[in-house]
Amino acid sequence: MMGGVAARMEMVDPGFVRTRRGARTACATIFSWATLTAVTVVFGVAEPLPIALFGAGACFFGALLITVAVVITVELRQTAVWAAAAFLILQMFLSYALRSWRPRAGLSP
Length: 109
What we know:
Layout: H1 2-10, H2 17-42, H3 48-79, H4 81-97
């Protein structure tokens, strides 16, 4: 599995696919930060920076998580169908099981 991932990392970037995806992720992160900054300023939030940074971080992490999940699923699909299905079920379970532990924007500890 790791050999296939390493081979993909060393390949030439045809049509600048990786460059476009990286630019999209960077732009989405910046726009998320800018949008949350504007919203917090409009609503007069006392400390807008943590909320804006949380939104930008969540956007960036979400974009990376989706990419990693797709890469792992494709690699597992080439190995065995049951492994890809098990990984999907694990993702669904963890998204539900970890809900109560995730941080919430705007809440003070």
